[in-house]
User: Fold these one by one.
Assistant:
Number 1:
Amino acid sequence: MAHLVDKLAVVTGATGGVGSKICEELVKNGLRVAGLGRRQHKLDALTAKLGDKFLAIKCDLSQEDEILSAFQLIDEKCRGVHTMINCAGVLFSNAILESKTEDLRNTLDINVLAPAICTREAVKSMRKYNIKGHIINMNSAAGHNAEVIKAPVGLYCASKYAVTGMTASLKNELFNTGIKITSISPTGIATDMIRRAGVPDNLIPHIAILYPQDVADAVIYALRQPDHVLVSIQHYNVSHATLDPITRELALVRCTRVQVHQQLATTRTNQLDKKKATRRNFEAIDPASFAPVDIRRIQHLICILYFSRLLGTVSTYTRNKSNLAITELMITSPEKEVILPSQAKTR
């Protein structure tokens, strides 16, 4: 990521399990990081570990004045935000109908209002310094399929649906500004947040299929993409019972993610069409590049390509450890106007 070396990334929730791992990976890849968090001892530990590449800022994201003060400090010390990663989040293990009003407000303050305020302030900074930046919202699979989640986390689901809608709206608001926005939607992650929600340690291996490193890897992957690639990353539970029939059918089509990305990285415009994006074409790939096919475990890689004249969407399904990662890439020609999916339908 040479184009990001010494660029500034702001990470909220830096003292959490996922946020701290993201900070570490960003610094490892050459970025400077301003980490916002509430726990001073965790910030001190990150500072000791990451050195002068890390700016620790104690901040309660439920308080707007503290957020504004943090961004003022960032502007004074670092000048210009290149990447904004909204990673902070809270989860209360209570049904909506049984929740305390205080918990309701806290969930919305941290999971919805804070990302909106931080994004607003980050975009102000990007525009002030003429930066073609990147906003990354840490969403959740709970923000897409609440109806299948039986745990009493209804308000958390609602807050993440709000993030889904906010990200979609920001895509329109940031259209043609040069500022990208990415949504990353993991399932359960083995962090203290799950434990604080009341999940026993002995159940975590059966529920949390991701680890902080998996999510940090997704962030780095999104940041590495060329400017004309827009990314939405989702991680879903892949137990056979949770896969719908369409997903199981898609599992019959195979292609390695590396080969797809190499193809996309070497072409500035779409060179593939529907005729080429066939099952036979993908199955011509050397079988040695796959893990043994096992539909029940989804141990192989699959890819479906959809293309229009100026816009292509790639959905890549890949089994990573015990999760199924779904990556949607919108590939556009940088020399031509970007057509949003909603616009493409009307043209």
Number 2:
Amino acid sequence: MFELREPEEEDESSDNIKPKEKHTPDVGEKTTEPLETPSDDSNPSEPASDSASESSEVPSAAGEESSETSSATAATTPVDPSPEKEMSSGEAADVDLLPPGWQEFMMFGRITKEFLEDQRFCSHYKEGVFSCNDLIHLLEELLVFARLWNEEGPETWFMPSVLRHISASDMEKRCSSAGGLVVDFTDGGPQSGVFCSLMSHVLSPENHSPYSWKLHLSSQEPSCLYRDCIQFEVPKYPGSVTFVDRYEYFEVHVFTSKMWEKELWGHVRKAVFGGIETVDETLGYSENKPRPAIVCPRTHTDRPHPAYIQDKEWICTSDTNQFGDLTTQFLWNQTTCIKDLFSVCSELVGVAHKWKKVGLALRLDPDLLDRIEAEKNDIKNNLLETLKEWLKKSYDTESFGDPSWKLLVDAVAHPFGGEDRALAMEIAAKYNVPAPQ
């Protein structure tokens, strides 16, 4: 029997194992080799030192190569130890990632073909299948883009949906909640995307409008350009037209001279309602039709809301009762409530000498009119005091309704009132109310 024993001199610890050299056999040589048994006089520590020296040579060589590479890089690249400058260079690198015109696009919604053809967008296009021109045409068809009138410089488009929103304070400074046209919707509010698409439509040359619309400029920059409040100009007319998205309804405010007011309002109304019809067809909306309205002047809520005409009467469905929890519906037989004393008085200068008869036709108490007369003021002051009492509702409002242009027109034309039907017709036409009875 053979007795198997391990050599006493061999240490099997990993630290003392000498790596075998790779042997490439010659042709005809057997590939199996007998294991070599270390001799008795061999020192077990020597292979470990040899192995350590061999393994230490490899990193040293790599380190020398890395050192040479670093030296070469350092020789060609200037090193700036300032951390502030390193950060600024990083910011500059981020800026370089943005295509030219990016700031113009985000701040003013203006975009050029050069911007869309930048190499950073090239991955979106496929030659012969989908090009930059195809993208522009698609976005124009969907009313996302509007081509701007630009006689000089590159062809430019406008994209209102990327603009920032206006603050509440700026909104109140730019637009009054009264006096403008309200676009109300039958189902409680406009659908998504209608406002921005309408802005693109009225600005596009293809909107079938007899006149061009342009962004209102101040020192070559838009004076009011927000996602929900945009100001336009119609070059044929002085002034401006401002659109406001109140999210539950739209407002349109026209600022122009008296000479052009009626004509411009007709043009604006046609452009707005015709534009919304086009937008609905483009976006596939078939319900929630728009209707003309005003901001309700007879509100019992803190939030403004529309009132619209139905069967020749103003109807408001958003007012609440005194408890604020039940929705009621108010109908009144006048077209517009009025609060401005001096605007009313200026319209009635022609019948100032008949101020007392007008006061009676407005259903004021005769004793009240006698007290005004007893103060012995001139006729204009008497008319002013009479209208002041009328606007203060010093009469039976439950029977005759709140002060309105309709009641005023009827009082001016009344045979026992102002007796001036021509003036009454003029006021009715100016404030768009029915002719006097």
